[in-house]
Amino acid sequence: RFSKKEWEEFTEESTHDSVNELTSTPEFTEWVIKNANRIKLLPDNDSDGEFSGSDSTDGYLAKNPKKSRFFGW
To answer: What is the pLDDT of residue 45?
Structure first.
């Protein structure tokens, strides 16, 4: 039996490994290319306030262009 912390660590590691395996396949690459218009990256809830906006089609605007990054993570 796992402790709560051990279970959380196990599931986090398992999820990481599975996503890593999935994203390294040629089929996933093809899917991303075909569906790029459907993919939207949102900043973490823990973001440092670098981006603002909503989840509408307006997207996110960088508050400080000097600090902006392609991804908000």
So the answer is: 80
Whole-angstrom distance, CA of residue 43 vs CA of residue 68: 12
pLDDT at position 71: 53
- Averaged over 11-33, what is the pLDDT? 96
- Which phi and psi (to 5°) does residue 69 adopt? -125, 160
Q: Which amino acid is at 65?
A: P
CA distance 61 to 26: 32
Q: SS3 string of 20-68?
A: HHHHCCHHHHHHHHHCHHHCCCCCCCCCCCCEEECCCCCCEEECCCCCC
Name the strand (E) or helix (H) holding 72: none
Q: What is the rounded (10 degree) CA torsion for 62, 71, 69, 16?
A: 140
